[in-house]
Amino acid sequence: MNSSTSSPDPQPARQGRGEAQTPADPGSASPLVTPGTYYGHGIPYLPIDGYPGKIIAIEGTDGVGRSTQITLLREWLEVQGYGVVETGWTRSALMQPTIDLAKSSNTLNKLTFVLLYATDFADRLEKEIIPALKAGFIVLSDRYIFTALARAGVRGVDRTWIRNLYGFAIAPHLVFYLKIDEKTLIRRVLQARGMEYWESGMDMKLGDDIYESFRAYQRALLKEYASMADEFGFRVLDARRRIEVLQDELRRQIGAFLAESDVTAAPID
Amino acid sequence: MTEWNSSALVKAATKAGKKKNSLTPMTFSLLHATDFADRLLYNIIPPLKAGMIVLADRYAYTAFARDTARGVDPRWVRELYSFAVRPDLAVYFRVPIEVSTDRLLARRVKLKFYEAGMDMGWSSNLVESFRLFQGRVLDQYDRLVDEFGLSVISASGSITEQQRTFRKLVSEHLQIEDVHEQLDELT
Question: How far apart are CA A47 and CA A135, in angstroms?
Answer without folding.
Answer: 14
